[in-house]
Amino acid sequence: MKNFIVGLLLGITFTVLIMYIISQPKEDVPTERTLTKKSEAISKDIFEKEITPEEKIEALGTVLGIGQQPPTSETTKKKIQNLIISLSEVYALRDFEKEKEVLKEWKELGLQAAPELLAMFRSGDSPGTRIMAARILGVINAKENNSEVSRILNSEVLPLLEEIIDKEEHMILRQGAVWALGDIKEEGSVKLLKKIIDNELPYLTESATGSLARIGTDSANRCLIELLEWSEDENIKRSVAAALGEHSSWEITGELADVLSGSLSTPTTVYVIRALTEINAREATPRITDLLQRESIPSLRKILNETKDSSLKRNAVYALGEIGGEEANLILIDILESKNKRDYGLKYATVRVLGEKGGEEVVAPLTKIIKEKKDDYIKIQAITALGEINNREYSSLAMETLNLEGLPYLKEIISSSRKRSLKRSAISALGRVGSSDDLPLLEEIARKEPNLQRSVNYAKNRIKMRESGGKWPMGRRSFFW
Description:
Blueprint: H1 2-23, H2 32-48, H3 53-60, H4 74-93, H5 96-109, H6 114-123, H7 127-144, H8 147-167, H9 171-181, H10 187-198, H11 205-215, H12 218-230, H13 234-247, H14 253-262, H15 267-282, H16 286-306, H17 310-323, H18 326-337, H19 344-357, H20 363-372, H21 376-392, H22 396-416, H23 420-433, H24 439-448, H25 453-467
């Protein structure tokens, strides 16, 4: 009975307490929009006060939308510290795939990381630390588009980066500051990057064009396309084309088409086509594909027929390989069948391109080279090309030529040639087209000629990886050779 009474009294007390809490007047819960307006007003007030930077940072930590909401937990602070360490490791190892993952985590943290980053930027003990903080602030604000953070980026961050670019002795820090500008997607960044290119600052132009392409605004893209069209510096044209190809989207196709139609089969033609093929490889659209087939191929054919610039002609061959299709392949096959002895370098480049990009339709002309050509290096390249095509899409004709002509030829060179460079080429080709049955031959040649051990190891690893179903890691090949 006693226990029953105690339980009843506790139940009544709990019920009364709940009713009291419910009866209390509720405070208005501000919407996200009102919070943002309030945050911006408070932030502006903080920065106008006559207080130290440290006090401003501390005050910012209480501002919703810029600081913590609620104040940063120890867990979040720890995550920020770990991400800073991770980003440092990324830069040290130049692991750019990992970099994307780390920057994505920073984006997810959003504005709650801003006070820590501001403190890191303002009181960093090295330019490298401050550059890193500047870059992350830019990445976060590109997503959040906060007016106060934009103000800080323009008033504090960009001037510091400009000072590093102008005065820092260590080139890697200057390049880091230029790269950071590409993450701070403000008009001030575009102006600074254009200034770098206009002044042709040594070793910084390529980084500047890449940063402009990453910014991706209309003004940034306009700046790049103007450079591509009017610059007389071939290195600038090359880096602009590479940057647009890697970072831009199909939306700039119209502007590139205008440059292409006015370039009249000049080096600019090849640079524009390079950008278009790279964009199309990433996000293929009928518009770009049609443009490449309709306008690019005639321009490239004209370059091959009329120019005497061997470098430009080779680049036209690589461009045709990137475009692909029946018409492009026919032009490449015509080069192989040319009897002009001066076209040796062009034929070598053509064989390589057909191996990388061709299919069943180019097996016959490559087979003809293996059977008829007297030049050993071109024959080895043709064997390699057939092997690459066969690895991508099985071809009975390619396999027959490899077994009857290609593999015996490579083994003969490896066993008996006195030219070391030719042996290395043959060993490399055997690694691409051979099988585990060829490993004893490779091991034997390594025992006889230890100076070929490195080439042999490379070939053996390729054979083992291919037969195990693995894929050989490919570095990003530059379009221009």
